[in-house]
Amino acid sequence: MAKYFDVHPENPQRRTLTTVADSIRSGALVAYPTDSCYALGCQLGSRDGMSRIRSIRNLDERHHFTLLCQNFAQLGQFVHVDNDVFRAIKAATPGSYTFILPATREVPRQLQHPKKKTVGVRIPDHLVAQALLAELGEPLLSSTLLLPDEDEPMTQGWEIKERLDHVVDAVLDSGDCGTEPTTVIDFSGGEPEIVRRGAGDTARFE
């Protein structure tokens, strides 16, 4: 059964976040809130976590996982960013965007797109997600909590706990965080390509 943590949205309890971060380091798969919608997260490099996310969401090998990063300095360790792309991404973060970029050697091979050698990265504009990343001290391997054959992600922590009780290890609930996933921008070819229109405004990339 999944552990359920009720977290204050503006003043998250550090003891709770430390407990969740420790569980992630020990291999736990967690459901947690972001600035776009709830997501599934596990430790970077966790093969079991990746496999479980793929199973829950019915994803194939071509799916781009996302590295949820605390800040730009952390993001820069895992993707190659030239000056023009840096400025474009810097202006849009933190926010509800996922950027697809060429991966550095820091990114485990199994996380990279098998042909493009790219990975998704993002910096959330969400207090609880940021506090969790601060406790974890490294990016969180992440994927939108959108179940197969459903049009919208789940928005209520208690519902996630109820429906995914036996397939996730913990649910971090800080209230409703919306239903729209991130806007996905592919910069791997140099110029921005809008892959998915979501919560982030696409005007700056068109």
TrEMBL record:
SUPFAM superfamilies: YrdC/RibB (SSF55821)
Gene3D superfamilies named among the record's database cross-references: DHBP synthase (3.90.870.10)
Pfam families: Sua5_yciO_yrdC (PF01300)
Domain of life per record: Bacteria
Domain YrdC-like residues, every copy: 14-200
InterPro entries documented for this protein: DHBP_synth_RibB-like_a/b_dom, Sua5-like_dom, SUA5_domain
Name the UniProt record assigns to this protein: Threonylcarbamoyl-AMP synthase
